[in-house]
Design a protein that fits this description.
6 copies of one chain form a homohexamer. Chain A has 197 residues and is of the alpha+beta class. Chain A has 3 helices and 8 strands. Chain A has a single domain, classed as BirA Bifunctional Protein, domain 2. The first copy, chain A, has a 5-stranded mixed beta sheet, covered by helices on one side. A 3-stranded antiparallel beta sheet of chain A has the order 4-5-6, covered by helices on one side. At the A-F interface, α2, β7 and α3 of A face α2, β7 and α3 of F.
Chain lengths: 197, 197, 197, 197, 197, 197
């Protein structure tokens, strides 16, 4: 499977419409499976909410790093695979954080640092593609009042130095996407060398 | 989807075992979807017959160009897709022959030149991969007595000159495989730019 | 698989709504898989566009022969199968043209005669059915200004005689549909006589 | 979907090999989905047992009416559909018995008359086809000692007259198969007139 | 598979919106597969009609017992399974009626008593869930003028005593749901003890 | 989805036959999806090897904790899901090790401690079930000479105290299985509250 990663340098908001099918084709002319990443505020309009449990809630943050994945390799699309890949992405991100000395906790698709919520995520699908939105606060600003949140840039090491900043954010994004794509490719390779029952 | 094409220069027989799952991995260490092509005699042992209609028949020829395709992109494998792709391969090969001035007829997956059988083909599958064998006689030798056959090297143009020979066979193979892979990729691209109902 | 073919004698326009799911049932009371053919102008309203690459373009022609296929045999529907069957239909149509002495070129699902575009096509799907629209200009009229088009009725043989006309168009339609349905049935038959891996 | 029903007049035993894939093609040259019915003794050899719960048990009867169904319409085959269709067949048979005044009980795929076991059944599948074996004792002979069985020919009405006999057995078979095929077709028709969510 | 049954004691109308995906989660916070049952009038608004054959017809009744099933176990959802399970539910309900001495006839998913229509039903699906609506008139009131209907409470035994009433309706609902769930579980169990081909 | 966990107290070897379909039913009478865990030596006979990359290699260890998972919830089985769930299991095990202060590295489905291989794993499938074998060395004994391995009981904390031993191994197994099952259930729940595209 081949997946194109495009990191968009300019800032633009995530309002939930970017999870629509074929957004990467319609916006950037990208064919096939893709991962688009960019920095921008998140404020999901009620019409674009994909998690029925969030109906009536605010899903917002002033400043997030966004990942939008779209997979066309499974025809028809399969929500189990969409959510399994979402978990894989979240867990790979945690593995990277851990290697950089950042301890986190995970509940399903949510990552917490010191009990504060770092990330949001949803998976969904149309008949022909599976989509994942995964986003991490960069700062604890503009998030809902009733949720205790933290940003990547708020995390410090034991010497109280900031670990992530504008200078290394794109490296973190690239490392995450590269490992995620590699993992998916490794799974495909594993399938092709497996003797069935 | 990415498909690796490997043309094997040395001659070896097709006995039907090459259609087994993961043959390309076990024989050449190739991961994922692949198309292996080579020249060699065909003599399918009864145990390896995949077409129940051929049980008790001889499927053989002294000298054929063989295509073995294995696709891992559809999980689980789907026999409709296996046979649709087989038809696509056969029809693309006919398109190429036609562009080179060779008129043929087609019945399902069989190609005929002047009423003589040029090709054999079968598709089959395991749970995780779809396989296609497509082979064309190079000469009308060693084929079953009760079938009127023709080889690619037997075909002549209007000036009675041989069209295909050892010198351009690999080009023909490469052109066929390239167009087949391109067609499959174009289909994947078409899916990714289609609005669903 | 059984597929009902209905050729509608009266002229009516294709505006893109005919590709909606269950149109053949809602319009003609036809159950199951079907192919509806008719002559009429094409002018797809923006809301009905299924190809995101065509957004903002005009898809129109004064006079076309239309094929609308709907397949319910695959549950759930599969976009790979939808596009593979579309290619099969387009390639079978080319085979027939060739047998009638008409040389064409093909790029994906587009057919060209002398470098001029003869046809348009799209495939799409809902969860329960796969749809194909395939249409051929009859005359080079009312097509977009920026596309060099040709109609079936514009094609002449080497003696400059028109090959297709109102008198034999329905025969051409029937032959195309019959062969397409036969090919799909042959594939189903091939599946039922194949030994799996 | 089209399903061919063939009732074989001659008697031959069911040893479990008839449930193998493509048996109807290999034995009778039948393409596609089929239902083969015949009268014969049942004695399943251990190698042919498909129900792991029956390992070590005898599955036998001197004289049964056998139904072997093979469905190729679902690609890939689906064991849920195989067992749902098996239940449909068993329940339709019960409906017919009831209309003829015969009260039965059902536990899963087993039918009982007066607490005595009338039928055996199993469903299984390969990647490309789903198979159902359904068989009813005609007489209570040759069945396992530890199971209390009854045959169709043992069933009497309130006046103690035998309801089923050699004279009307084929009618019963035909009625069962006709209704089963009609039900499956009706389901396909229902799909084609359903608006999705 | 685990399926939660919730019988809602209060009366509320079925207007067709309850067949939408995830209604049980949005209304009652129920995760996963569920069966919701309740008594209420039925009057399906045209927008909510799922049966294209009913377009322009009235689907209504003053007083019905409603079953809404949603299954998330099949990913992606499959309309064949949706309708097979619908038939299973309808046939199990008939089995229960028969055990209580009530003779009925069945045509597809419709149940008739003395030639009068007792029930309505539809199945539909989104990509991730399959839904069934099954409802039975309690009284022959408020049903369309051109359909001869009957209610469960209108059915009497041979002594002219009413069989079903408000006092035992919930028992009937529970028995139906329990057997239906048990049957689906038994099918899953059967799959897990079946040797494949 | 419901998954039964059974920890077998007695020691028995893993020879590769336990990965066969329906082993839990045939061995323990367990219906449906299951996870069987036990301690025992591993020595996979060549016939039972499922990883074609391991052909000719020894896969063995004197003393391992074994997990055999079988999932029947996906019909037909899907190798992508099999391997995604395998990765989930491996990553959840790493999360638990990390919480207990044990740093590891992961490459695909392999876990390493201090560059020494701790685990082996494979996923495979038949048409109706997906199987995962995941096993961890308890001691570095009886493993292949050319692989540097480590056992769970060889791991020590910073004070050089052994972290895992016979006293807490079952707790570790239970915690791993409980979290894995919970994660799979959470994914199912997430599906049922997701709005599709």
């Amino acid at each position: 499977m081949s997946i194109e990663h495009k990191h968009v340098a300019e800032i633009f908001p995530y309002d939930g419409s970017q999870i629509d099918a074929s957004w990467a084709f319609r916006e950037f002319g990208i064919y096939g499976s893709s991962i688009i990443t960019w920095v921008g505020p998140v404020n999901i309009t009620p019409d674009n909410l994909k998690d029925f449990a969030d109906v009536g809630l605010e899903i917002k943050s002033n400043y997030m790093i966004n990942f939008i994945c779209e997979f066309f390799d499974c025809q028809p699309a399969n929500m189990r695979i969409a959510y399994l890949r979402q978990r894989l992405l979240v867990m790979i991100f945690r593995e990277i954080l851990f290697e950089k000395g950042v301890e986190t906790k995970r509940e399903g698709d949510d990552i917490f640092v010191d009990g504060r919520k770092l990330s949001i995520s949803i998976a969904t699908a149309s008949l022909s593609s599976m989509k994942i939105h995964f986003a991490l606060n960069l700062e604890d600003k503009g998030t809902p009042d009733d949720v205790d949140t933290i940003g990547l840039f708020d995390i410090t090491d034991e010497d109280n130095n900031q670990i992530f900043d504008d200078g290394n954010l794109v490296d973190l994004v690239n490392e995450t996407v590269d490992r995620f794509i590699l993992e998916l490719e490794t799974i495909e390779n594993d399938i092709s060398k497996t003797n069935l029952l």
